[in-house]
Amino acid sequence: MDTGVESLREIPIKEITTDTDTRDILAHCKFQGEVNKFDEIVIVDTDAHHMEIESWAAICEYIEDEVQRTMALDHLQNRTGSPPYGLNGDLALRYQDIGGRVPHQAKLGEVVEDTSVHRDVTLIRRAIESFHLDYMVVFPTPMLNLGMHPQFDMEAMLGRAYDKWFCENILPMDPKMKTMLFIPFNDPHAALKTVEALGDHPDVVGFMVTSVRHKPVHHNDYMKVYRAMEETGKPLGFHAGYNWADPSMAQINRFGTMHALSFVWCNVVHMSNWVMNGMPERFPGLDVIWIESGLAWVTWLMQRLDHTYLMRSSEAPMLKKLPSEYMAEMFYTCQPMETDHREALEVTLKMINAKEQLLYASDWPHWDFDAPSVIWDLPMLDDQAKKNILGENALKLFGLDRPAGK
User: Fold this and answer.
1) Fewest CB atoms within 10 A around its CB: which of 33, 95, 225, 299?
2) Is residue 405 in a domain?
3) Averaged pLDDT in 10-residue chunks for the chain of 406 residues
4) What's the CATH code of the domain at 175?
């Protein structure tokens, strides 16, 4: 039986380790930016991450419930090998580094000597400099699994603690750092409270729902949440993730296959429900972003939903135009952009109105991150389209200040 596990091989030289400096890993990326004069244009990274578990003790101090806070801090002090308190891990992570061949994100153990700011601020600044960014929208990482937590109240409790900690301790340290609030979607009441409490924070540019969950996005319980978001003028993003434990993924035996499908499937389901239940008509002022699912799925779903709608329009009575027309008005982050079939990509970019609706995203520091050159090097885009995607679209969508001289 083929287990897919190779025998151990000695690798004499490790060019990149978990201790390698971000600036060394991204040295070629920085060089590309210098050659292409990226400092002369606006570049906004709409999806990057930090490892919040490095600060889990500090985050747990923000847990409002005294009993849960005490349990969390005790767990941090006395735990033996389990995940940080409250987090539901996924076995897939043990395969993500490909047996140590893509190791950097596993620990982010690089040396940081500057103690004047939080360590995460320094790491984020190194990436901002290397990518030639004007702004970086930063998300958590392990917390993206909380949508499937078996304890109903855990997502709201930890989400609230994280949001407050991040807004108070990280965002004020650098004007180039922004975030989209972690929304505890399993609890509509807590989700509404989060929007009302922190939605007007100047460095919060939107609201983020982790897509891996079994909650229908069109349920009436969420209508007050969407209305509150709409009133802020800030967009809602559905951030994709994986779930190897999902029954539809359980028969898959390779991480890569699961990753290719799972990151898309959650947003396929949510997009279908969002469109066919008329959410764009109910909340016309709420922009929606689909994050970290790539792009290839969008045109496939456009065709499937249009085909069905034209035969069964009575099942979607709120729609005033084709599903694909609503989808072409939404926003998409490019990463991980499928660039290997250029003709298919060109059709995709046309169908989603990429010049106005596509947003650059790196997904740094994850293993499949994209540098700005992934957009800049596309031959089917004119210069203005490239500039729009790299930064101008995000500048407008998020209401960000234009950087001086650009």
Assistant:
1) 95
2) no
3) 63 74 94 98 98 92 94 85 76 70 76 93 97 98 90 94 98 98 97 98 98 94 98 98 87 92 96 99 99 98 99 98 99 97 98 99 95 98 99 99 96
4) 3.20.20.140
Instruction: Report the number of distinct structural domains present in the chain.
Output: 1
**Does a structural domain hold residue 5?**
no
The reported pLDDT for the residue numbered 105 is 73
Distance CA 196, CA 213 (A): 23
For residues 88 and 250, give the distance between their C-alpha atoms in angstroms, rounded to a whole number: 18
Range of the domain at 217: 22-398
Q: What is the Cα–Cα distance from 379 to 196, expressed in whole angstroms? A: 44
Rounded-to-integer distance, Cα 277 and Cα 219, Å? 9
Q: Is residue 331 part of a domain?
A: yes
CA distance 24 to 11: 20
Helix (H, G, I), strand (E, B) or coil at 221: helix
Residue 177 three-state SS? strand
Beta strands in 112-195 (DSSP E): 135-139, 177-182
Q: pTM score, two decimals?
A: 0.94
Q: What single-letter amino acid sits at 339? A: T
Q: Is residue 50 part of a domain?
A: yes
What tokens does 58 get? 């500090």
The C-alpha atoms of residue 109 and residue 118 are separated, in whole angstroms, by 14
